[in-house]
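One-letter codes give the sequence; each number marks local geometry. A record appears below:


***
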Amino acid sequence: MENGCDIYKTILKPSEEILYKDKKSKFYGYAFPILSEDEVKPIIEELKKKHPKVNHVCYAWQLGVKSPTYRTNDDGEPNNSAGMPILGQIKSYNVTNILVAIARVFGGTKLGVGGLITAYRSAAQIALEESTIIEKIIKYEFSISFDYPEMDKVMRIIKQHHLEIVSKKTEINCTYTLAVREQEVTFITSLFTTMPNILLNKKT
């Protein structure tokens, strides 16, 4: 993601299963949207159950936007012959918050390291091509507290600037949690901090 940009790419939903073949080896490819590393292990375990004859389930994932983290797994294939080529395709498509996994069924003929790199890269590429890539906006959440008589003023700002109401408690003392595009944070929060009788609490 470029500096100052608050938009990133990810995939809308899990991709359909794809199949890439090379010398009778079968490479089943998948892409999944994820929000945390904790989601990875259950997905990989499900793929192994789905393909009981699989020899390897290799994968790569990337999470985050400004300082993304990633991990690769060759699952018994020669070092860097599977996970890294998969990660290379994730980076090539400039997507994040994503897991790409390739399940291989050995076909009886060794492909060599070069052949494996090509196969895993190709399967990952096809899986990403078959995915619905979307753009998402990084949002910043904050809460404001105010007395009910201030409601009209608060709602005027919310409507004028199309702010997202994440949650709200409307009583004598009201608390609203709002979400705003990251690049608009300073301007929007200043609108509330300059208003009397409104307390702004930063959340994230």
Remarks:
- The chain has five helices and eleven strands.
- Residues 9 and 51 are 30 Å apart (CA to CA).
